[in-house]
Design goal:
- This protein starts with 9 loop residues before the first helix and ends in a 24-residue tail after the last strand.
- With 461 residues, it is α+β, with helices and mostly antiparallel strands.
- It has helices at 10-27, 67-81, 91-94, 105-109, 135-139, 156-170, 174-186, 224-227, 233-245, 253-259, 268-273, 327-341, 357-360; strands at 31-38, 41-49, 62-63, 203-205, 212-214, 230-231, 275-277, 282-286, 289-298, 301-308, 313-319, 364-368, 371-377, 383-387, 395-399, 404-407, 416-421, 427-432, 435-437.
- The protein contains 13 helices and 19 strands.
- Strands 12-13-14-15-16-17-18-19 form an eight-stranded antiparallel beta sheet, with no helix packed on it.
- Helix 1 (10-27) packs antiparallel against helix 12 (327-341), helix 2 (67-81) packs parallel to helix 6 and helix 2 crosses helix 7 (174-186).
Length: 461
Amino acid sequence: MTTPQGELLPTTRRALTHRIAVAQAEGRTPSLVAAVVRGGRAVWHGARTSVDRHGPDENVQYRIGSITKTFTAVLVLRLRDEGVLDLGDPLEKHLPGTGAGEAAIAELLAHTGGLAAESPAPWWERTPGSLRPELADVLGKQPRLHPVGRRYHYSNPGYTLLGALVEKLRGAPWEEVLQREVLDPLGLRRTATRPSAPHAGGWAVHPWADAMLAEPVEDLGRMAPAGQLWSTTGDLARFAVFLTLGDDRVLGAETVREMRAPAAPAEAADVVDGAAYGLGLQIQHRDGRLLVGHSGSLPGFLANLTIGVEDDVAAVVLTNCTSGPLLAGVGADLVRIVAEAEPRIPEPWRPLGEVDSSVLELAGQWYWGTHAFALRLTLDGGVSLGPLSGQGRRSRFRANGDGSWTGLEGYYAGESLRAVRRPDGTVSHLDLGSFVFTRQPYDEGGSVPGGVDPEGWRGIG
């Protein structure tokens, strides 16, 4: 038996349903709704609820809390891509007078600006935003708790500042800019700063009794860029596709790839847990796979978006309780279930469209000292260089159009690779950020720095 392209097998669908059923029952949440994305579209929706004949679907809104931060980060990166700002710019350059202007924009995106985690009392998530009308009310008298750039410290006020930055540079409210530049182009019609029917109500479930208490729904005001949004599994499934592939109407593929790269120094505990933070995205190594996305919470709601980029699988999980199921684990499990039950089928191998003979002659084995490396041509017109042992420094390189390449990742990111030729046009060696790679170990004809012992290779005797 075969299934149509893109659809999940019945056994996979049952495993997904079982996982969210366990999460809803053991987490004691009034409702839980989820979606799985594969191949650029949603391929499964599921829901569990305590109310008979009233199950939520992919169009029911839930508050998504801090997943809002990812949307705010997208707006900031749009400004960078347009040349309006540089991520290395201090906030003070574009938004003066905050008292936190020493932090660079990239540091605020990555939560390394040294700012406090929360705004001053009263608890901002359960009180009206009107209590904090100005940025000074959000930041308080001591906005900075740590040296700028030295450590990762999650900060809600930091993303409030980024929202204010967007407003200053766009000359319009954050909400309007978000609608115009992200929600409308991506077709996220059920994502908004305020709920519209159908939407879930937020509840607190008593920790020692099966009883519920309604949670207040507050407009967060200035804090909106850190956690205001409502959305659906349908919309967040489309947002997951964007965060995987990019969309030139909003951000290109290279920029969303940049968002997914670690940008903050990890605490020791984070290293052990395999957790990191990018530019508006959380990063986690779990079950042998790299996952990116974001979690969110506000009184009455929990949310999670998890993307397994290499597996081409993403999951969205939303629920309406203050505490209960650990949604990051549920999201990771949904990705794992699909990735293991129905592994991604690779694209067919295809030859290069055209081959540059001057590049082709560089392919093959090279030596950095005595370390053996292989240089390969890649389908995107660049090259890759990595150790034959499989362990050690490796990178892909982007062609610059002048016979040189620039490293894209790892130790060699940003470093220049070029072939050094002799007067007769033959290749002497490769120069990679001053490292010399030769065709033979310490090749006498390869301009090895420090020279080569004239006695050559020899044994002990």
